[in-house]
């Protein structure tokens, strides 16, 4: 279980530049929750992901995963619990290394003791099986340098590297936003399949409203560092994009301003 208690984060506190990134956030996620997160520009979505992943500390409050305070764990421990896929396809992989070397590193990161990331034949067989399910032929290119892959292929590999060791928490940070529509659709479909099949507790930040409604079992809407809407599966089912935008305006008192918003 992932739990945020009273999480508050300010940037430049006490100065004219003070920014409230998160204010008093209480959230509990059940195992297997697939939560989509939307919000206006500067609403605090990235800060929320940074704090859950432990790379940023809250000023007040704490994040617990399976009862462990995430801020107190060293990075190698955190990487066993939490996996993240970023918007930039270049961010999650090592371009000069091959597909199998990248997968091997991702695999060894989650092991208690490091046995090195050498590629053995049994690992290679396992990697091939995992790659096969992506359905884009990467299983035939284990020795290819990752820097030569297209953005979509790289993002599919990043998604696989983040998930194949079954993290407790998966953070998807606008992970389809930098891709062309066809590739974005492919990664979205793979994400949905993998998350549901592996029952991964997942938070996915997206600017695509239709996707935010269609995917997952819970939708969170943020504005000015606060959660202003938390919509469960039952209410999400029949929701339309215009109803969601209307709800946002009613509660926040202003229109959703997001320069990257995709309505559907
Ligand atoms: N390192 C920083 N220094 C100062 N202010 C920051 C910093 N990072 C974020 N902020 C501010 O904190 C607030 C929340 O930012 P955050 O990046 O979390 O929002 P976001 O919802 O991810 O926005 P967007 O959708 O525009 O990327 C914003 O007002 C932002 O300007």
From TrEMBL:
Membrane topology classification: Peripheral membrane protein
Transmembrane spans: none
Signal peptide: none
Keyword Membrane: yes
A Pfam family that the UniProt record links to this protein: ABC_tran
Compartment(s) where it occurs, according to its Swiss-Prot or TrEMBL record: Cell membrane
Keyword ATP-binding: yes
GO molecular function: ATP binding
Key words of the record: ATP-binding, Cell membrane, Membrane, Nucleotide-binding, Transport
Domain ABC transporter per the UniProt entry, residue ranges: 2-249
Alphabetized InterPro entries for the sequence: AAA+_ATPase, ABC_transporter-like_ATP-bd, ABC_transporter-like_CS, ABC_transporter_ATP-bind, P-loop_NTPase
Domain of life per record: Bacteria
Full protein name: ABC transporter ATP-binding protein
């Amino acid at each position: 279980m992932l739990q945020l208690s009273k999480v508050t984060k300010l940037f430049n506190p006490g100065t004219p530049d003070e920014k409230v990134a998160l204010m008093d956030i209480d959230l509990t996620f059940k195992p297997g929750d697939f939560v989509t997160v939307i919000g206006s520009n500067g609403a605090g979505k990235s800060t929320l992901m940074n704090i859950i992943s432990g790379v940023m500390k809250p000023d007040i409050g704490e994040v617990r995963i399976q009862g462990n305070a995430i801020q107190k764990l060293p990075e190698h421990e955190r990487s066993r619990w939490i996996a993240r896929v970023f918007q930039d396809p270049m961010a999650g992989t090592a371009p000069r290394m091959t597909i199998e070397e990248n997968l091997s590193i991702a695999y060894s990161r989650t092991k208690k003791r490091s046995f090195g990331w050498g590629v053995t034949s049994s690992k290679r067989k396992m990697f091939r099986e995992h790659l096969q399910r992506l359905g884009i032929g990467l299983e035939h290119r284990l020795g290819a340098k990752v820097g030569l892959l297209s953005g979509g292929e790289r993002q599919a590999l990043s998604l696989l590297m983040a998930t194949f060791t079954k993290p407790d928490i998966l953070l998807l940070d606008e992970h389809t936003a930098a891709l062309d529509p066809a590739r974005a659709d492919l990664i979205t479909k793979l994400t949905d399949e993998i998350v549901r099949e592996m029952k991964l507790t997942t938070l996915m930040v997206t600017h695509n409203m239709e996707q935010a409604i269609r995917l997952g079992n819970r939708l969170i809407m943020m504005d000015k560092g606060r959660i202003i809407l938390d919509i469960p599966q039952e209410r999400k089912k029949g929701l339309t994009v215009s109803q969601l935008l209307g709800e946002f305006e009613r509660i926040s008192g202003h229109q959703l301003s997001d320069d990257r918003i995709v309505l559907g």
